[in-house]
Every structure is written in structure tokens, then in C-alpha cells.
């Protein structure tokens, strides 16, 4: 990796993501998407004041652009048995779903930035035999309207269908524990997440897509179980184990 940095720095464009990957001495570069996503989250958090309402700036933040650029390069002309599109909860899984899969999860992702992500990925001619879309929690937090969320989700499904997949699965938006649900600076109210999930079910019915039920053990009465979360809003190791198993059941069918 050190040689790649030195060679990349000597390129006419200087050291950057493209020159680094071009000089990397292997055809495969394993990058923990969850680590990139955490950096994206840090950039998003520092770009606004604590009093400002949360907003989707995944695609405009510097680290968000780097993460997306990496995905574009890594997905170029590739074919995967499974692709996961989601927010920080999905990104927390890293690349643990199998060698023939790709985790496109990004911290802070909503249907707004999901559309921008998909529009950037489609020209790479990436193919996904099965696609899983796990979105909605940030839409609830950002205050995106019912109409816009449903419209964006249907448009995202249409874009994913151009990736040559045989099946698409939807994952309900993730609930938080009680405390974050009551703090608008941390998470969306669970009542709003419940409304988003009703919209996901409605879109799934229109698009004739299944909504996976495997994440149900994470919750009790539409509230994330305290023992499955690291901070009340994200999953800890045990919670990620349940989520991962639900995704593997989809991918292995």
C-alpha cells in the first residue's frame, strides 16, 4: 500500500483516489464501507450547527464524494450476487455478506441521496442479481414528506431494476430506542418511522416487492431493544448479527 501511495503521488494528477487505485498492486482492494461511512457522518455532522435541522448532505460533503467515487470505481463492470443499499445501520455491516456481494450503504443516506448514488452507479454497468434497499430512517429524521418519500422510493426501485437484477427486497426503516426517539437532534420519532414503514409497505404493494420480516427480532412494540444498540440509534454487535442473518436469508434463497 505504501508503494501505491508513492506511485500515486508521482502521477500527473497527484495523489488522489483514482491515482491510488491505479497504482495499487492488486486487482482487489478491500475497503471497510462502514469506516468510510463513519467518516462521511463526521463530515456531515461538522458541516452544520447543532441547532440546525438535520438535512441530507451525503452527496455534497467532501468525504461523501470520496465514498461514492470509491463505489463507482469498485463497481465498474462488476456483477454481484447481492447488493445492499442503505444508511448507517447497513453500512455498519461492512463487507460481511459474502465475497460476491457489495455493501453500498452510506451514513446519512435518505431516498434523496440514494437517487443520486444510483444515478452515479448505473453508468458503471454494475449488475446486481439481488438488490436489497434498506432506507427510510433518515427520511423520517430529515422531515421528508410522505409524497416525496414515496416518489423517491419508487424512482429508486425503477433505477435499481436497470441493474439487471432478478429480485428486489425492501427492509423496513429502523426504529431507535426510546431516548433517541424523543431527541430530534439524534433521531426521528419512532411514530414517524412507523409512518414511513407504512409508506414502504404501500410502495411494496404497488411495485409487487416483498418487505423482509427478518429484522422483527430487533424490536419490541416498534422500539429498538436496548440490549441490541450501542447508542440507542445504531446496532451493536448482537444487533448487527440479527440484521446480517436476515440479509443472508434473503441472499441465500
What does this structure look like?
This protein has 253 residues and is of the alpha/beta class. The protein has two domains: 1-30, no CATH class; 32-252, SGNH hydrolase (Rossmann fold). The chain contains eleven helices and four strands, in the order ααααβαβαβααβααα. It has a four-stranded parallel beta sheet, with helices on both faces.
Arrangement of strands in the largest sheet:
2-1-3-4
CATH topology of the largest domain: Rossmann fold
Q: C-alpha Rg, in Å?
A: 18 Å
Number of strands: 4
Helix/strand order, N-terminal first = HHHHEHEHEHHEHHH
Structural classification: alpha/beta
CATH superfamily of the largest domain: SGNH hydrolase
Low-confidence stretches: 1-9, 23-31, 45-49
Number of helices: 11
What is the helix content?
Answer: 40-55%
CATH architecture grouping of the largest domain: 3-Layer(aba) Sandwich
The coarse silhouette is globular
The major β-sheet equals:
4 strands, parallel
Q: What is the averaged pLDDT score?
A: 86
Number of domains: 2
CATH class call of the largest domain: Alpha Beta
Give the end-to-end Cα distance, rounded to a whole number of Å. Answer: 38 Å
Strand portion: 5-15%
Q: What key phrases describe this protein's structure?
A:
disordered N terminus, Rossmann fold, 253 residues, alpha/beta, four-stranded parallel beta sheet, 11 helices
SSE layout:
Blueprint: H1 2-9, H2 17-23, H3 33-46, H4 62-75, E1 79-86, H5 88-91, E2 101-103, H6 111-121, E3 127-134, H7 137-142, H8 146-161, E4 167-171, H9 178-181, H10 190-207, H11 237-252
Parallel strand pairs: 1-2, 1-3, 3-4
Helix pairs in contact: 1-2, 3-4, 6-8, 8-10
Amino acid at each position: 500500500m505504501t508503494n501505491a501511495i508513492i506511485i500515486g503521488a508521482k502521477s500527473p494528477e497527484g495523489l488522489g483516489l483514482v491515482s491510488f487505485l491505479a497504482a495499487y498492486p492488486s486487482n482487489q482492494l478491500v475497503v471497510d464501507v462502514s469506516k468510510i461511512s463513519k467518516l462521511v457522518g463526521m463530515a456531515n455532522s461538522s458541516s452544520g450547527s447543532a441547532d440546525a435541522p438535520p438535512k441530507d448532505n451525503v452527496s455534497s460533503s467532501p468525504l461523501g464524494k470520496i465514498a461514492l467515487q470509491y463505489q463507482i470505481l469498485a463497481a465498474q463492470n462488476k456483477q454481484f450476487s447481492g447488493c445492499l443499499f442503505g444508511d448507517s445501520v447497513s453500512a455498519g455491516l461492512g463487507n460481511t455478506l459474502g465475497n460476491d456481494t457489495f455493501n453500498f450503504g452510506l451514513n446519512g443516506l435518505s431516498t434523496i441521496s440514494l437517487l443520486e448514488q444510483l444515478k452515479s452507479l448505473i453508468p458503471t454497468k454494475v449488475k446486481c442479481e439481488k438488490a436489497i434497499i434498506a432506507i427510510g430512517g433518515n427520511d423520517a429524521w430529515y422531515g421528508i414528506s410522505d409524497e416525496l418519500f414515496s416518489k423517491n422510493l419508487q424512482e429508486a426501485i425503477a433505477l435499481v431494476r436497470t441493474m439487471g437484477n432478478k429480485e428486489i427486497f425492501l427492509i423496513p426503516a429502523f426504529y431507535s430506542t426510546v431516548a433517541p426517539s424523543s431527541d430530534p437532534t439524534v433521531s426521528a420519532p419512532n411514530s414517524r418511522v412507523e409512518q414511513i414503514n407504512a409508506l414502504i409497505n404501500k410502495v411494496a404493494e404497488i411495485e409487487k416487492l416483498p418487505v423482509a420480516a427478518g429484522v422483527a427480532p430487533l424490536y419490541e412494540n416498534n422500539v429498538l431493544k436496548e440490549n441490541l444498540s450501542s447508542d440507542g440509534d445504531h446496532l451493536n454487535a448482537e444487533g448487527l448479527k440479527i440484521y446480517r442473518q436476515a440479509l443472508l436469508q434473503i441472499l441465500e434463497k
